Amino acid sequence: MALNLIRKFVASSLLFMTAASASAETFVFTAIPDEDETKLVERFRGVADYLSEQLDVDVRYIPVKSYAAAVSAFRNNQVQLAWFGGLSGVQARRLVPGSEAIAQGVEDEAFQTYFIANTSTGIEPAQEFAELEDQLRGKTFTFGSKGSTSGRLMPEFHIRETFNEAPEDFFARVGFSGNHTRTLRLVEAGTYEVGALNFQVWEKELENGNIDTNAVQVIWETPAYPDYQWTIRGDVNERFGDGFKARVKEALLALDDKELLESFPRSGFIPASNDDYEPIRKTAEEIGILD
Amino acid sequence: MHSYPTVRASLIFVAVAVVGLLFADIAITASNPWRDLGNFFLGVVTPNFFSSEGLLTALLRTVAFAFVGVALGSFFGFLLALVYRLLPVRIFCAFIRAIHELFWALIFLQFFGFHPLTGVLAIAIPYSGIFAKVYSEILEEADPEPRRLLPPGTGMVAAFLYTRIPDCWEQLRTYTAYRLECGLRSSAILGFVGLPTLGFYLEASFSQGFYSDAGAMLILFYVLIATIPLWVRPKLLPVYILAAPFFLGEGLPIVWGNVERFFTEDIIPAPLRSGEGLAGMVPWLGDLMVNEALPGIWNTVLLTQIALVATGILALLAFPLISNHFGGPVRRTSGHVFLVIARSTPEYILAYILLQLWGPSMLPAVVALALHNGGIIGHLIGRQTNTLRLRPDAPTGFNRYTWELVPRVYRSFLAFLFYRWEIIMRETAILGILGIYTLGFYVDSAIQNIRFDRAMVLILITALLNIGVDALGRYIRRKLALQTMPTC
């Protein structure tokens, strides 16, 4: 009886170890956690089902807790494909030679950051960022995630360029909310007076009636820059068969499920290349996020 | 009265904390913190246990990680305890326990990724260091008499097993069981960095304002901890320990090349990696020290000192709640419930909740640290007062508190407090991940920017700071001749 039990344990522990090699056949992808988790899981499970159908392999999405975790998982080859932001994509491709940006959203060619303010501050929307200097100085301010392009990199760049000061010197208090939805909620609630977020998140929440426009409004829109993209590792063909990368790209570009696209929210995906993100790399180097 | 060394020490610490308050960033920045707090409590009383299909799995994983981590920690800790008198072993143990579980997890995540090993090692490594220290203290205190009665020629192992172990068995057992409870807390918070335990779902629900879901998870967690005596039985332990590894989940496969890369490239300081050599190290280190390490150390020390005194005050205020020198059974029962909740909730989770509700400043961190640690010390002191027998005509009420009880328990109160000093600092550093500008903030920033070389230097500094405070705490305890008993 005891022997039987031991035998079972040994058998299942062997199974446990081989589970790792079996799942090597699964194509795994992740995404930066830029929005509410429930939404992300819903969205990317849909994408996983779609890709699985199109590519004829098991496709699995794993949620991560930070932008860096997404980059690390990609670098460590635990995921082979990722939906990155501009900055995280640049970081990831720099760490994984041969990896490629293959597709971006239609909207990502000309992405924007919105600066938003709680209405109790009395700050009025402006065309030029410089006009807001006096009103913004000494307020409390929140970025999104530390590794975000639209929530950190671009707003920090514009703050430094326009006001010639580091954000923590210009504002009374600087925080990192974690993601765009939370930035919106924190500024809406007045926990921070001013914040900066991904314009698509703002537009979608506005459309869905989830924003109390009496409490929070957009005060400035940045010029356009390239953002989100799908990035794939260079070695996927060796693992999943010749032409796999091209098939993934094709599948992403052909994605036309309205509901799925709406969840991103993007109107469709178009081809992208590593060079498209040069401006992001330069900006990141300029403000010292990249070496 | 001022000439009592214990009083003088206390006053110095209070003075430091008061001066610290002048420099600290203490504020409630949320515009409507009480409404949010109200919503949160509403969520707790209207829990939704069916929010996520993953909830029960997460609970199972939380338990599994705790069992495997604590079992390994206790095993290796015991081995280390046997050679603890060797200085290198002591230094090694002090070092591994000075690094918080979450920091270990963040390190392992970089090369093991989302593999169960990450979570297991994150618990097992620091716990080995703690077990080694406490086990060796317990073993040392064993009565030497039985040993002397053995006939000459008795083997070392036999002597150890038959004379030392029986004498300290009860203490070893109690302490290990206690660490299991700590392990459950550690395991739960590992979810905050992405492991599949309770913290993963708690963070998700909380950040989205799903307070009923978050409330349900907290309640399940309290129930899990409160029922430990019911489901952790000596006879069942082997079953749990053997079964636990099978419930860790499979995660993602380890790629061993990543491990090599981490140690040979990632953590090598950038100037050395790029071939600038030692000349490049000076500005690199200088920049790191001035812009990150020093502000981090300053804030960590500041917050630690304020939180330490706040913990002390709260413990002194809280212990009468469960002392049977005061009040009736209703008051004591609610006192017990309050203290159990305060000490069962990990500081990290408390701080996270309060930060969400009050906005970012040091205040949520101070309150969280004081509630958790004050809850633990208040509980221990309260229990101690129950063993005190006062004269039948002893004063009652406030006078009994100030003139009879506090003076009697004050020394052990201080002992506990100084014992927890290092633990509070460890936690203070880690709370930086939540956005308070302590060392953890800069560690997290370095990791977010994929600069592991910087992260490692900052983690090393954090560890050294902890070792320093630990030594200082021990020095003060010895100076004041305070007896200590190990606590979590």
From TrEMBL, chain A:
Entry keywords, A to Z: Signal
InterPro entries the UniProt entry points to: ABC_peri_PhnD-like, PhnD
Gene Ontology biological process: transmembrane transport
Keyword Signal: yes
UniProt keyword annotation of Metal-binding present: no
Highest taxon listed in the record's lineage: Bacteria
Signal peptide feature range: 1-24
SUPFAM superfamilies: Periplasmic binding protein-like II
A Gene Ontology term for the protein's cellular component: ATP-binding cassette (ABC) transporter complex
Family: Belongs to the phosphate/phosphite/phosphonate binding protein family.
Stated name of the protein: Phosphonate transport system substrate-binding protein
Organism: Marinobacter pelagius
TrEMBL record, chain B:
The keyword Transmembrane is annotated on this UniProt entry: yes
Membrane-spanning intervals of the chain: 12-34, 54-82, 102-129, 214-232, 239-256, 297-322, 334-355, 361-381, 423-443, 455-476
GO cellular component: plasma membrane
Cellular compartment(s): Cell membrane
Keywords assigned: Cell membrane, Membrane, Transmembrane, Transmembrane helix, Transport
Membrane topology: Multi-pass membrane protein
Major place of residence: membrane
Superkingdom, taxonomy of origin: Bacteria
Protein name: Phosphonate transport system permease protein
